[in-house]
Write a structure and sequence with these properties.
Blueprint: H1 2-13, H2 18-39, E1 53-55, E2 59-65, E3 68-86, E4 89-91, E5 97-99, E6 104-119, E7 121-133, E8 143-154, E9 157-165, H3 187-192, E10 196-207, E11 210-217, E12 236-243, E13 266-279, E14 313-330, E15 333-350, E16 360-374, E17 378-388, E18 395-403, E19 411-423, E20 436-448
Antiparallel strand pairs: 1-2, 2-3, 3-6, 3-20, 4-5, 6-7, 7-8, 8-9, 9-10, 10-11, 11-12, 12-13, 13-14, 14-15, 15-16, 16-17, 17-18, 18-19, 19-20
């Protein structure tokens, strides 16, 4: 602090010009920034002080009091993407040819800063975050500030409210980002799943090996949708029931792959159900932040005007979807799969009476096989997913590698090859575009601490 006093004293004795004043203020700020570092330099008999506590994948504990806690966590990744192996266009089931903007670029794809902890009681918990989709800068919901509040009564019931993922498939149960691929799903999972919305939910353990989640929300995907676009139904329901028959668990947050190297065979069986009445205003646009919309298996959004013929417009529809998943993990190897069945009915709108159908039925599945080549260090995986739809039968194949340089989930380098066959989903934040047909190569450097 002696430096600051001398500097300020000198400035008072001299009649400074505006330019020299700016220069003096600049020097003052530099000294202010450097002085804590200078004063904190450890001497020969001085140990460097530290504060806070760090838990891998849970972040830093920065506040710890009898009235509450505050943790800070960061998730981000760099992505190199090469889509030049894709066709330059695709033709949908209605004969319309659509151009594909093939990409080759480097992006800081997403940044997620999370703040969580408890207030007044360890049972009353909060989670708030800032989540960016940097590939869609300037578009709706490019930056999302959201969160939720929860109260844990006991192991059997926790009640929450706010923004959360509808638990309609395994990947929306809360295991993100502990997937084989980095921040994107297989084609079938992305096609059938619900997304994030605002609502209320309950979750907990029925027994030591049986758990449940149930959520009531606004719609299938609220990101990119304002309150005025939502209908007044508040009738989106999603639920999951998971059973772990052998070990009572399935890894960290029931993750994909066997990074934990189970010495005893771990197994899981899951069942999911989702129901929602959707309208054309409450569905995200094609490039929205979380690109979830009700699509046909050729990639067409069912609310597109004149999609089924001139003058025909679907304004409302009911979405129902069930999925069943199962998996086994043993000594670094994992085999996991999921089956989906979706029904779209109760179609309403202009010209609907002229259609020769009253419902749309689709089903599909995905399979993922993975193995730790080097324990806690190098993993390989292969996946396949397929959609059996009324407007096409797309599929995709993937081969990938994950390297964990610090032998934990905090830092991961990933490289993956995708062969896409007319994949009906996509977006700027995903490695594949809607209708993509051909080969994709991409690589990610992920940090999750």
């Amino acid at each position: 602090m002696t430096i600051f006093k001398e500097a300020l004293g000198a400035s008072e004795r001299i009649n400074l010009s505006p330019a020299s004043t700016s220069y003096t203020m600049f020097l003052f700020l530099v000294v202010m920034l450097l002085s804590p570092t200078i004063n904190a330099q450890p001497g020969p008999d001085h140990e460097e002080e530290s504060f806070g506590h760090y838990t891998p994948n849970a972040g830093f504990r920065v506040v710890n009091t009898d009235k509450g806690t505050l943790n800070f966590k960061l998730f981000t990744y760099l992505r190199y993407l090469n889509q030049l192996g894709l066709d330059t266009s695709y033709t949908n089931a209605f004969g319309e040819t659509i151009a594909i903007d093939r990409r080759q670029d480097m992006q800081v794809n997403k940044v997620n800063m999370t703040f969580n902890g408890w207030i007044m009681s360890p049972k009353f918990r909060y989670l708030f975050y800032v989540w960016t989709n940097n590939t869609a800068q300037g578009q709706s919901a490019q930056v999302v500030v959201a969160g939720n509040l929860q109260y844990a009564f006991n192991d059997h019931i926790t009640i929450g409210g706010g923004i959360n993922a509808l638990p309609g498939v395994r990947s929306t149960e809360g295991n993100f980002p502990f997937w084989n691929a980095v921040d994107n799903r297989m084609g079938a999972d992305e096609f059938f799943r619900p997304s994030y919305t605002t609502g209320i939910w309950a979750k907990g353990a029925v027994t030591k090996k049986l758990r449940y989640q149930v959520m009531l929300g606004n719609n299938l995907s609220q990101l990119g949708i304002d309150a005025g676009q939502l209908d007044a139904g508040f009738n989106t329901l999603s639920a999951a029931l998971t059973f772990f028959p052998t070990t009572g668990e399935f890894g960290l947050n029931s993750n994909f792959g066997d990074f934990e190297n189970h010495e005893k065979m771990a197994t899981r069986i899951g069942a999911h159900y989702s129901h929602s009445n959707e309208d054309k205003q409450g569905v995200p646009t094609t490039e929205a932040f979380e690109n979830v919309a009700i699509r046909l298996s050729d990639g067409s959004v069912i609310f597109t005007p004149d999609l089924f013929g001139p003058g025909i417009q679907v304004n409302n529809a009911t979405y129902q979807m069930i999925s069943f998943d199962g998996g086994v993990k043993y000594r670094g190897f994992a085999l996991e799969g999921e089956y989906y069945f979706r029904r779209i009915n109760n179609l309403e709108g202009n010209g609907i009476a002229t259609l020769n159908f009253d419902k749309l039925l689709d089903n599909g599945f995905q399979v993922q096989a993975s193995g730790m080549i080097i324990d806690k260090s190098l993993q390989c995986y292969a996946t396949y997913s397929k959609i059996n739809g009324e407007y096409g039968d797309p599929d995709d194949i993937r081969l990938g590698l994950n390297w964990f340089p610090w032998h934990n989930h905090v830092v991961r380098w990933n490289v993956e090859f995708i062969h896409a066959n007319r994949i009906p989903v996509g977006g700027l934040s995903l490695p594949f575009p809607v209708g993509g047909n051909g080969n994709i190569v991409y690589s990610n450097l992920l940090v999750n601490f």
